Each structure stands twice: as C-alpha cells, then as structure tokens.
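> example.struct
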C-alpha cells in the first residue's frame, strides 16, 4: 500500500490511501509501531497534485492518527501542527469543487481535533476561525456547507474559548456573524439556515 500511494496512476493512489485509511479506522492499535511511517506518508498524500479524493481520505486518516498522539510527544505534536493549514486548504478545495460529502468529512475532522486534549490546533485557532467564518459568510457557498462551517466555529468557541479570548477573536467573530444573522430565514421553521445557525452562536458564548 505504501508503494501504491506513490504510483503515477491516480486510481492506484486513491485505492491505496483508502485501504490505509480503512486500516486506521479498524486496527490502528495493532499498527502502533508504524504510526510514524503512516504519519509521514499521509503528510505527503495530503498534498496529492491531482486527486481531491486522495487528499480528503488522507485528511480523515490524519484525524484517526491524532487520537493516538499524547501530550508528551512534542515532536509529533509539532509535526501535526504544521499540517493544519494544508488541511484547511484541502477543505477549501473540496468546497470549491462542490464536494458535499468530502466537506462534511472535513468538518468532522476539525471537530475531532478541537475536542482532543493534545494541543494539535492550538497554534492555528486564529487561522481556523478566519477560515470557517469566511466560509459561513460566503453566499456563493452552498448553504449546507455554510451551516457546517458555523457549527465548526461554534466548536472552536466552545473548546478553545480561552484561546479565542487571548487572541482577541470575539469581536471579529461577532462582527462576522451579524450580517449572516440578518439574512432571510427559510419559510420552514425546522429548516436550518446560516441565519438561524449563526443566531445560536451568540455573544454569551464569547464573553
């Protein structure tokens, strides 16, 4: 599988990365001696030049590996932190391609990283806040993706609240949410919309 991820054939790379992801999802405990090698591999496939599928499957695999990085593994934490911005870039590419399922998976990945005790995203809370607020505010983006971005933003505020406060992000978040909250609501009262989801992330969460 390692060898196949380097294949010039994109379908080979897509299949190989998916098999590796499936292993991470089911038997990661038994692969403990290969965690570093797998991490190094995924750091490369995250930047696949052709396939969004390779990049997105890699993103999901990195979320699985994150659960096994402990707070005393300083080198692993530092290496992982360096991938956060590329992971956001992969998410942006999926949004631009209208990959609904991929975007949902990406949002799940970042929500997972936010609740993990190991400080994998701590240095990039500012970039993450700006990214998800920007997606939420972009009316050219599908409304479901915008609502999902607002949900991730809510997780940032909830689980990284002290970091948000220390970075002075409360004001730009509120200023970014205000125009979203002023958008028209759908007629169906049970239907989610950016305006409704933004209203659930109020000033009280940021105080």
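> example.seq
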């Amino acid at each position: 599988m390692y060898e196949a991820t380097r294949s010039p054939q994109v379908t080979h790379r897509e299949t190989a990365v998916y098999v590796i992801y499936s292993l991470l999802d089911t038997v990661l405990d038994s692969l403990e001696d290969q965690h570093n090698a797998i991490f190094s591999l995924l750091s490369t496939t995250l930047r696949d030049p052709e396939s969004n599928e390779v990049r997105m499957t890699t993103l999901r695999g990195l979320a699985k590996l994150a659960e096994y990085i402990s707070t005393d593994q300083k080198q692993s934490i530092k290496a992982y932190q360096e991938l956060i911005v590329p992971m956001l870039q992969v998410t942006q590419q999926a949004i631009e391609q209208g990959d609904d399922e991929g975007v949902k998976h990406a949002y799940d990945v970042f929500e997972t990283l936010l609740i993990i005790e190991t400080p994998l995203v701590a240095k990039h809370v500012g970039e993450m806040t700006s990214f998800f607020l920007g997606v939420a505010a972009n009316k050219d983006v599908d409304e479901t993706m915008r609502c999902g971005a607002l949900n991730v933003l809510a997780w940032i505020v909830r689980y990284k609240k002290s970091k948000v406060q220390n970075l002075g992000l409360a004001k730009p978040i509120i200023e970014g949410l205000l125009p979203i909250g002023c958008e028209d609501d759908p007629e169906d009262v049970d239907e989610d919309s950016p305006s409704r989801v933004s209203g659930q992330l109020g000033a009280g969460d940021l105080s």
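> remarks
The longest helix spans residues 10-27.
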